[in-house]
Backbone:
């Protein structure tokens, strides 16, 4: 197998290069934002730049990057664009800039939205240019740029400006481009369309000729573009050299076609046009497909296009077609062909009279139609309206090959999509792992197109949605697998031995040489399948390794995935491995196959099962694992061996590789997605269209749902009636009681319910009814019934004063429908989530809520807060492996809950025993839950009923307060409660206390009744299943756990009514979708009532390691972000309580009016200055250290020694002033820098008690969702902004600090970046050198913003800071010397720690 060529990496220009560039000089003269006096607009500048910079460099990305970065589009091109100055260079320059913005993944249309007037004219010019002759004014390369621009337009239909232009190209009138016979056929199929078509014709007649001509041009645009493409395609020779411009044009064109087919609004009318041009037939017969090297990507794209043109969907209605409907369509096509043959072509009688199954394969169709002449084939095609009618006297102009392929490809039997999917192996093999078009390397530049599905705003059907996600998820995990294989196998250093075998010169922790491999079972296939039900094999390895690594291998669990690898190295012993050269040829890798562990075998050859029992100790080093192989893959390999005489792959393996368990769940997730596609996915009706991206985006908002709930109990949400009134601004609050003393929470609120589906009623005059009525809230305070005399009987209460937007989020979450809450940093997302959960729990006690988060850490934070509210802990359950980190004494995992139930049962039975004794009842009532139940029924209830009959109001007799206490039958039992139990003040009060006591007793027996099941179920597993399915009301898990365990949960009969997702903007699209389907539908409907998503799409998206999937396929788009883009209504929390107001200003521009909570101004910690530092935030410029700025030892592993040393020096300075080290975190934007800073910390601070270690040294991405008082941030880059250009990363970086933020960066680079301007303009307004006050110890009494009374010192550069800190440290050592004679830190050590290594330290 040929190893792929390594792609070039695009080297970003350095600041000095930027400054030296001709472009930059022009920018400084004409459009740079920081230049005050700019020269007037000159069209010649645009012409020059285009000719000299862009065309001359053959559209070099580096030049275009520079132009785009200098804000050429925003400040010059579009600002000055008008029809008068429009020219070829002008159009092309704008297209290049827009394409570059899409490549960089930054918003592209903002500039056009601000000045939309000339966009229609500009767009028409683009259409005209796209159809121009290739050898005319526009070259093929330029037209490829235009195609890419058009593709971006078609993929941006959510932008009104773009949609208004594009719609004219893809609406029904485009059917003008069809042949008349085909048009007639289509209109006949759907009678409704004929009415529209006649209307269109009428309107056309009313137009003036010029406008009509313009409209016709637009309608025929795509048909003409296809014809133009076909002519370019036909000009590609079979074997002579071809210019790559032609190949790239063809690839980009097919990409555009795929994107048009994969969106319903564009596909609806276009699919018929595409079919009528027979584009696919032309492509499959073209020379380009048969060119091995140049046509590889084209062929892959073509297969994708073929898939989408035949997609199982009704183009008109948008409904998915079932298997039966697809079969019917196929049969209709064949029978209409048979009818035509029977009526008009006697030579086809045999074909016409055969049954369908006999003639619908490719072979039989070629056999029937092959012998016919070209003219006859043309006539058959024209009878089917596929080609224009052939006049009697003329011969056809079409090639026979084309005519035959047209008829065969249209009528051959297709394998259904689901069948294809089920026959696909889930593990990647060497063919996919190293195919650059499918799994590009880390150096993906974004220039070419790829054979990958894209995740945009809309999907055709749920099947399409799942399939795209399935493919991308599979490939993203393949990329990670490739990295692991390359790492492990090269560490093992496979060399060729003297005898031609393999010898391993190294070792790897994650891989071992295979000693023996045998297939031990191939089970029979299921009926109707041709692959075995399972294939098992035994793999033997020799674990002669360190104990902890041996433990890791022996700890492989059931379902862990491993890879079996065959290497046949050709390099002799001792050859060095070069990471820059292609991997495959160096190690001689031949095969890769996946497998799943069943278990390790014991001495007797039996699988050791996972379980609570201790594992047997095995002697010796040899271990054998039983593994499951992929049956589909096995069947393909064996077929290949038998039919083609290929070697048996399964006799060649010589390496087994394992992966880290956390990164190794891809197979389970893929199986889950595949299972979902094989079942009827039942998504609630109110969600279906929104998930696919169609219809009214606000249709699932509670105000438009058909079943809003009028009265809701807000329980402890409000702290007082005043709090309630301020929470509903603009509403008229009416309280049912007038006495202010009784207006205390909890409150029930009745909201005005709108009639109809969210539409206001109309008066007879058609006027809206007075909206006053819609603003009235009826509030009813109610008293929670007394729960008993013990202090712990009092309900726990919420203490947070929610803001009115938080209340709106809580209200929306309690109503049925979809609620989306956007929570900027520090706005109390978790508090809102917990309150929603608590309120649903109390309002709908019979419903069950599923909580899903992205990380275990978020789940733990939620759980800790849920514990503080009034929720019975027996109803909480936590699934997955993260419960170990919960910071509570209690264990909420399945087995923890089982133990809790068993322990609680014993406690309650003890209480029953005490009650029995206090009542003097003989016998053993507390033996089991069952006997306790009888005791309650016959002994407790009878006494209570007798008591009630004595003390209840008798007619005409005033009740006596003392009777309540006198007759009370449970005095002795409640003797251990605070006394006296009865106050004797009023009859009502004492009666409520008595009933509270009885509620306390009754609850004991209710719980025991629930716990009876744990007496009947004996095993821990059964008990835990019972808890999950019956007992738990609030079940929490991570999205990964949901994806892994879906099959098990559905099988158990797991049910839930509500889903709450935290960190929703960080969860992959597919991992957000799977939790909706963790239960079987009831009578064909989903029982899901509420879906609450809480997240922040302005912070970082899900982590996708491969740049191509992240950028090209948009895989990093979460479902939350997609919903926001579609326009689903959101509740935006708007008050933060985390950071100083000045720090909040660095990121609040990104949100809708984000303000501060009052305590941010009032609390002393926010109003006091940061000791020893003049400013609460500062951007500190760091120049090259010893001539070096950023360095890159490995791909994307960026480091910057100057910044690393500076950051650590500031950290040490703060600690020496007295700052607690754990209140400081050091963040950076790259992993390389993180490792470098950790190394320097280890060398400088070590375990020094005077300094300590920072709370965390990590990357910005990893620190999302966390915070600290002081953040020191290193931005690393000095050549190009890099991924900080993604504003979401900037928002996370700026919002982690509460009290102080100090940023180290190359200012000249970052201040020019358009996207970062709002933050960097504030940062650069302060001095760019560090200002310190060395004599001011921590904590200080100075107020923030006050001028200090002590001397301020300005630090110019890093060496100065390092020397300053060293001297400060030595001074500190000397002054404390005579106090700490014994515990003195040896001076030599301190010097070793602190002298800055002037030759530079390498991390």
Residues:
């Amino acid at each position: 197998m040929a190893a792929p060529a390594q792609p070039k990496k695009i080297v970003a220009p350095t600041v000095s290069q930027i400054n030296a560039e001709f472009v930059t000089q022009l920018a400084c003269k004409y459009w740079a934002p920081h230049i005050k006096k700019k020269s007037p607009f000159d069209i010649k500048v645009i012409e020059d730049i285009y000719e000299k910079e862009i065309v001359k460099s053959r559209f070099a990305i580096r030049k275009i990057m520079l132009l785009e970065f200098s804000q050429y589009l925003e400040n010059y091109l579009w600002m000055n664009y008008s029809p008068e100055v429009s020219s070829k260079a002008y159009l092309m320059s704008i297209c290049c800039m827009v394409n570059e913005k899409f490549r960089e993944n930054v918003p592209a249309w903002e500039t056009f939205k601000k000045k939309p007037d000339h966009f229609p004219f500009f767009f028409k010019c683009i259409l005209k240019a796209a159809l121009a002759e290739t050898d005319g004014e526009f070259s093929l390369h330029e037209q490829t740029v235009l195609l890419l621009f058009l593709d971006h337009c078609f993929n941006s239909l959510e932008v009104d400006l773009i949609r208004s232009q594009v719609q004219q190209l893809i609406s029904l009138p485009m059917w003008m481009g069809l042949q008349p016979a085909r048009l007639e056929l289509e209109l006949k199929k759907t009678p409704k369309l004929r009415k529209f078509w006649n209307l269109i014709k009428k309107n056309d007649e009313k137009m003036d000729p010029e406008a009509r001509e313009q409209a016709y041009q637009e309608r025929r645009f795509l048909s003409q573009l296809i014809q133009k493409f076909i002519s370019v395609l036909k000009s590609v020779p079979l074997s002579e050299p071809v210019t790559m411009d032609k190949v790239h044009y063809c690839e980009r064109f097919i990409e555009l076609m795929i994107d048009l087919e994969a969106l319903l609004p564009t596909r609806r009318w276009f699919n018929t046009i595409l079919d009528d041009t027979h584009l696919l037939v032309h492509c499959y017969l073209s020379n380009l497909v048969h060119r091995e090297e140049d046509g590889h990507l084209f062929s892959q794209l073509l297969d994708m296009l073929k898939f989408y043109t035949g997609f199982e969907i009704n183009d008109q209605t948008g409904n998915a077609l079932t298997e039966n409907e697809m079969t019917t369509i196929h049969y209709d096509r064949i029978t209409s062909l048979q009818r035509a043959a029977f009526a008009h072509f006697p030579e086809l009688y045999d074909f016409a009279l055969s049954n369908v199954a006999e003639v619908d394969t490719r072979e039989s169709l070629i056999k029937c139609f092959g012998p016919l002449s070209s003219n006859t084939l043309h006539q058959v095609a024209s009878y089917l309206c596929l080609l224009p009618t052939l006049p009697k006297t003329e011969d056809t102009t079409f090639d026979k090959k084309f005519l035959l392929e047209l008829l065969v490809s249209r009528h051959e039997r297709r394998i259904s999509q689901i069948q294809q999917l089920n026959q696909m192996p889930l593990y990647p093999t060497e063919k996919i792992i190293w195919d650059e078009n499918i799994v590009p390397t880390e150096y993906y530049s974004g220039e070419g197109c790829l054979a990958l599905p894209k995740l945009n705003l809309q999907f055709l059907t749920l099947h399409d949605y799942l399939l795209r996600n399935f493919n991308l998820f599979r490939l993203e995990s393949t990329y990670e697998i490739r990295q692991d294989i390359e790492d492990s196998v090269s560490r093992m250093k496979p060399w060729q031995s003297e005898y031609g075998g393999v010898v391993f010169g190294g070792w790897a922790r994650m891989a071992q040489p295979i000693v023996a491999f045998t297939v031990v079972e191939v089970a029979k296939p299921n009926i109707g399948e041709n692959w075995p039900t399972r294939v098992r094999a035994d793999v033997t390895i020799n674990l002669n390794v360190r104990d902890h690594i041996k433990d890791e291998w022996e700890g492989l669990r059931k379902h862990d995935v491993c890879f079996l690898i065959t290497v046949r190295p050709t390099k002799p012993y001792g050859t060095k491995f070069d990471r820059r050269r292609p991997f495959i040829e160096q190690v001689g890798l031949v095969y890769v196959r996946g497998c799943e562990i069943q278990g390790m075998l014991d001495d007797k050859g039996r699988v050791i099962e996972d379980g609570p029992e201790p594992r047997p100790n095995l002697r010796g080093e040899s271990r054998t694992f039983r593994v499951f192989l992929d049956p589909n893959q096995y069947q393909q390999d064996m077929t290949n061996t038998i039919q083609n005489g290929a070697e048996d792959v399964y006799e060649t393996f010589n390496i087994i590789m394992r992966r880290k368990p956390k990164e190794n769940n891809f197979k389970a997730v893929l199986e889950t997605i595949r299972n979902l596609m094989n079942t009827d996915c039942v998504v609630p009706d109110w969600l279906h269209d929104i998930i696919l991206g169609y219809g009214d985006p606000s249709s699932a908002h509670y105000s438009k749902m058909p079943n809003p709930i009028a009265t809701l109990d807000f329980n402890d949400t409000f702290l007082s009636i005043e709090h309630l009134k301020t929470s509903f601004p603009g509403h008229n609050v009416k309280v049912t009681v007038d006495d202010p003393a009784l207006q205390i929470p909890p409150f029930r609120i009745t909201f005005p319910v709108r009639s109809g589906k969210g539409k206001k009623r109309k008066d007879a005059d058609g006027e809206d009814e007075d909206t006053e009525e819609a603003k009235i809230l009826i509030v009813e305070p109610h008293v929670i019934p007394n729960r008993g005399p013990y202090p712990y009987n009092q309900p726990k209460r919420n203490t947070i004063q929610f803001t009115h937007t938080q209340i709106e989020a809580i209200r929306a979450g309690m109503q049925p429908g979809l609620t989306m809450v956007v929570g900027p940093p520090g706005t109390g997302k978790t508090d809102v989530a917990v309150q929603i959960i608590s309120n649903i729990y109390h309002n709908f006690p019979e419903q069950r809520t599923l909580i899903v988060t992205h990380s275990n850490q978020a789940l733990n934070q939620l759980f800790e807060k849920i514990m503080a509210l009034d929720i019975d802990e027996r109803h909480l359950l936590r699934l997955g492996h993260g419960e170990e980190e919960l910071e509570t004494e209690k264990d909420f995992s399945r087995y923890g809950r089982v133990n809790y139930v068993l322990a609680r049962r014993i406690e309650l039975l003890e209480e029953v025993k005490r009650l029995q004794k206090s009542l003097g009842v003989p016998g053993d009532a507390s033996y089991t839950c069952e006997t306790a139940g009888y005791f309650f029924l016959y002994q407790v209830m009878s006494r209570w009923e007798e008591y009630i009959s004595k003390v209840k109001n008798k007619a005409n007799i005033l009740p006596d307060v003392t009777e309540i206490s006198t007759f009370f039958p449970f005095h002795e039992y409640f003797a251990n409660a605070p006394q006296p139990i009865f106050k004797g003040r009023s009859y009502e009060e004492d009666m409520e206390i008595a009933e509270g006591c009885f509620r306390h007793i009754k609850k004991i027996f209710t719980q025991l009744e629930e716990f009876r099941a744990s007496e009947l179920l004996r095993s821990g597993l059964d008990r835990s299943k019972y808890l999950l399915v019956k007992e738990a009301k609030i079940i929490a898990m991570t999205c990964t756990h949901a994806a892994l365990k879906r099959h098990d949960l559905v099988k158990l009969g797991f049910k839930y009514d509500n889903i709450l997702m935290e960190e929703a903007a960080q969860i992959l699209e597919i991992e957000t979708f799977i939790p909706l389907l963790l239960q079987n539908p009831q009578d064909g409907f989903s029982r899901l009532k509420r879906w609450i998503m809480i997240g922040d799409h302005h912070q970082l998206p899900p982590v996708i390691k491969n740049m191509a999937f992240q950028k090209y396929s948009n895989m990093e788009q979460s479902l939350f972000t997609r919903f926001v883009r579609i326009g689903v209504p959101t509740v935006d929390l708007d008050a933060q309580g985390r950071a100083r107001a000045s720090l909040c200003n660095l990121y609040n521009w990104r949100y809708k009016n984000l303000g501060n909570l009052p305590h941010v101004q009032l609390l002393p910690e926010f109003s006091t200055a940061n000791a020893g530092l003049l400013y609460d935030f500062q951007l500190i410029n760091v120049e090259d250290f010893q001539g070096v700025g950023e360095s890159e030892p490995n791909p994307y592993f960026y480091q910057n020694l100057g910044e690393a040393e500076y950051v650590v020096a500031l950290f040490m300075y703060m600690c020496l002033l007295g700052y607690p080290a754990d209140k400081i975190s050091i963040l950076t934007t790259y992993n390389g820098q993180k490792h470098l800073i950790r190394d320097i910390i280890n060398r400088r601070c070590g375990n020094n008690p005077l300094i300590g270690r920072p709370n965390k040294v990590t990357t910005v991405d990893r620190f999302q969702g966390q915070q600290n008082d002081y953040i020191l941030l290193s931005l690393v880059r000095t050549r190009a902004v890099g991924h900080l250009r993604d504003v979401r990363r900037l928002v996370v970086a700026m919002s982690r600090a509460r009290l102080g933020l100090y940023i180290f960066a190359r200012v000249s680079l970052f201040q020019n970046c358009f996207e970062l301007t709002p933050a960097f303009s504030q940062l650069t307004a302060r001095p760019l050198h560090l200002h310190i006050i060395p004599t001011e110890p921590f904590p200080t009494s100075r107020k923030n913003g006050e001028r200090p009374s002590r001397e301020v010192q300005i630090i110019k550069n890093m060496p100065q800071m390092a020397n300053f800190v060293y001297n400060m440290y030595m001074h500190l050592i000397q002054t404390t010397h005579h106090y700490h004679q014994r515990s003195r830190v040896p001076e030599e050590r301190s010097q070793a720690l602190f002298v800055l290594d002037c030759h530079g330290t390498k991390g």
In short: The first strand starts at residue 494 and ends at 496. The mean pLDDT is 88.
